């Protein structure tokens, strides 16, 4: 009988150590992983019990529904998108066309910023001359 208790305790300690080592840091609560490892090694029974009760983060239970629950049935396939007419099919723009459009947009915004700076400077000169 003492051999069985020792074997069970050994398996619990080994299981706790493996569980601690394989958990990510975000899944370990209250103490750093290294402290949990030392706790389980130096206080095998108490450390293992504490680890499995308060040290690890368990995943939230997933609601899988009950037997014959409508939520478990696969949803019907989505309806296919309506086909476009052949004359409405436009080829995709090339990378060069997109880059040219972006260059034109940058140039436009730079010009707008320049106009705003000139207007602010003009307004400042008008106030100074008054």
Q: Can you put this structure into words, describing what you see?
A:
The longest helix is centred in the C-terminal third of the chain and has 35 residues, at 95-129. Among the domains are: 2-55, no CATH class; 94-129. The chain is elongated, with a radius of gyration of 34 Å. The protein has helices spanning 2-22, 33-42, 44-55, 95-129. The model has no long low-confidence stretch (mean pLDDT 82). With 130 residues, the chain is mostly helical. Helix 1 (2-22) packs antiparallel against helix 2 (33-42), helix 1 crosses helix 3 (44-55) and helix 2 (33-42) runs antiparallel to helix 3.
SSE inventory with pairings:
Blueprint lengths: L1 H21 L10 H10 L1 H12 L39 H35 L1
Helix pairs in contact: 1-2, 1-3, 2-3
So how many helices? Answer: 4
* H-E order: HHHH
Strand content: under 5%
The pLDDT mean sits at 82
How many strands appear in the DSSP assignment? 0
Gap between N and C termini, in Å? Answer: 105 Å
Low-confidence stretches: none
Major β-sheet annotation = none
What share of the residues lie within helices? Answer: 55-70%
Pairing-aware structural class of the strands and helices? mainly alpha
The whole-angstrom Rg is: 34 Å
Shape: elongated
């Amino acid at each position: 009988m003492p051999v069985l208790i020792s074997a069970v305790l050994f398996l619990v300690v080994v299981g706790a150590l493996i569980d601690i080592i394989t958990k990510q840091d975000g899944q370990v609560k209250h103490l750093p992983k290294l402290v949990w490892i030392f706790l389980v090694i130096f206080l095998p029974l108490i450390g293992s019990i504490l680890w499995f009760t308060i040290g690890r983060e368990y995943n939230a239970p997933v609601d899988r529904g009950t037997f014959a629950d409508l939520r478990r049935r696969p949803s019907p396939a989505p309806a296919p998108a309506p086909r476009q007419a052949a004359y409405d099919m436009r080829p995709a723009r090339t990378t060069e066309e997109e880059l040219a459009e972006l260059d034109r947009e940058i140039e436009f915004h730079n010009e707008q910023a320049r106009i705003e700076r000139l207007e602010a400077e003009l307004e400042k000169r008008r106030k100074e001359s008054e």
